[in-house]
Amino acid sequence: MARYTGPKRRLSRREGMPLFTKDEKALERKGAVLPGQHGMKRKRKISEYGLQLREKQKAKRMFGILERQFSNYFKSASKVKGETGTALLKFLEMRLDNIVYKLGFSKSRAGARQLVSHGHITVDGKKVAIPSYNMKTEQVVALSSKLSDNIHVKKVLEDSTTLPEWLERKATVGKVLRIPAREEMEQSINEQLIVEFYSR
Questions:
Q1: Which PROSITE patterns does this entry report, sorted A to Z (predicted)?
Q2: Which of 131, 152, 183, 185 has a beta carbon 3.0–4.6 Å from 97's, enabling a disulfide?
Q3: Please, is 144 exposed, middle or buried when counting C-beta atoms within 10 Å of its C-beta (0-12, 13-18, 19+)?
Q4: For residue range 121-158, what is the model confidence (pLDDT) as tens digits?
């Protein structure tokens, strides 16, 4: 259950896009300046390998996964029939913490991960405290009764955006209707570059 605990906004600046909640303003203020003492000077042309690496790092950081686990996801995806990149994204999208986030139970994936790891989430009526738990179709996700009346949680649910069509939610209970299609998954990731990175 290892996770990145360092400064987050510098990661968003490094990837040139808001990877976490509230990072949009930080990027507007800092512009395209990379993190670090020499961020203003580092504007050299990026190689093909560099582009592949940045895409892999972006996806890894967006879902809050460290290198070993992300690499294992790729190995599993490469064994699935069909496009490896799409299979990789499916593994990421079907993580329990991502589904908790997509259901609107939390404003961020990091917050959703915390809800899961602290035992506030049940799957089919049983408590699951593993953020990487692989969800399947027809499984039901719910907030624990302890949190259902929490003022902060109620506000988050009220402010949550429209749900993806592959998910369903009623109050504090959600359901996975089906596996998402590629166009319903994270659009800011170019999975082909990640495949090329691991296929070197």
A1: RIBOSOMAL_S4 (PS00632), S4 (PS50889)
A2: 131
A3: middle
A4: 999 999 999 999 999 999 999 998 888 777 877 888 88
